[in-house]
Design goal:
This protein has a domain of about 160 residues: Fido-like domain (Fic-like fold, Orthogonal Bundle), CATH 1.10.3290.10. It is built from nine helices and two strands. A two-stranded antiparallel sheet has the order 1-2. Strand 1 and strand 2 form a beta hairpin. It is globular.
Length: about 240
């Protein structure tokens, strides 16, 4: 990957920290809502960030939108809360912790399956029949991106693999005190293409390049939103 984009990312990251964006009132909460909305949208949810905010803050469901999308968001929120708690304790990444996280995000929408190879329950994180540190900002992020790619490629569960992989990526970022990157729902097509290209060519480069652009986009948007809100005298919101 060209060094250029990572130089830009490092500059944006330094600006993000200098501005103190993460210290703004309710920033962490609303960024989490955005992570959840975009992650479930990759799986087909049509809930917007405003829908998610109303669901979590006021218990209001979006009219005309399937209940399953609301349940997906609620379960994923609980899984993120678990991930952040585990990250505070630097819990090693093992098969057990992955199963625990998947069980939480599939708690409501998972179900039992009976197949030729036996039975399993996706609502319990059952598979379908370790702390690591890195040096530079780029190395830390690429560690999380590679974990994301590898888990999606292994595809160990009947459902929830993509959400768990994105959650794992953010978990590693939490452990390293990094800004949590998101995959934007409007870039779903490019996201899937980068995964397919990496899997077909057996190289992680297409996916690493895609995720670097997503990280840059996310940092740029957060800085722009913060600066616009500050000029208007608003507290941070979507």
């Amino acid at each position: 990957m060209e060094k250029g984009i990572w130089q830009e990312i490092e500059q944006l990251y330094q600006l993000f920290q200098k501005l103190g964006i993460s210290e703004a009132v309710d920033y962490e909460k609303y960024h989490l809502y955005s992570l959840i909305t975009n992650s479930t949208a990759i799986e087909g949810s049509t809930l917007t960030e405003i829908d998610t905010q109303l669901l979590f803050d006021e218990g209001v469901t979006a009219k005309g939108k399937p209940l399953v999308y609301h349940l997906m968001n609620e379960d994923l929120k609980k899984a993120y809360e678990l991930a952040k708690e585990e990250a505070r304790h630097n819990t090693p990444i093992t098969a057990a912790i992955l199963q625990k996280l998947n069980a939480v995000l599939m708690h409501t929408t998972g179900s039992a399956y009976n197949v030729m190879g036996g039975s399993f329950d996706s609502s319990k994180g059952e598979y379908r029949l370790c702390g690591v540190t890195a040096g530079t900002l780029r190395e830390q992020y690429e560690l999380s991106f590679n974990a994301h790619l590898n888990l999606v490629t292994i595809h160990p569960w009947v459902d929830g693999n993509g959400r768990t992989a994105r959650l794992l990526m953010n978990y590693i970022q939490y452990c390293n005190n990094l800004f949590p990157a998101k995959v934007f729902k409007e870039d779903r097509g490019d996201y899937i293409l980068s995964l397919q290209q990496s899997q077909d060519a057996e190289t992680n480069q297409p996916f690493l390049e895609f995720m670097a652009t997503q990280l840059k986009k996310s940092l740029s948007q957060e800085i722009e939103t913060f600066n616009t809100s500050r000029k208007k005298g608003f507290s941070f919101m979507f």
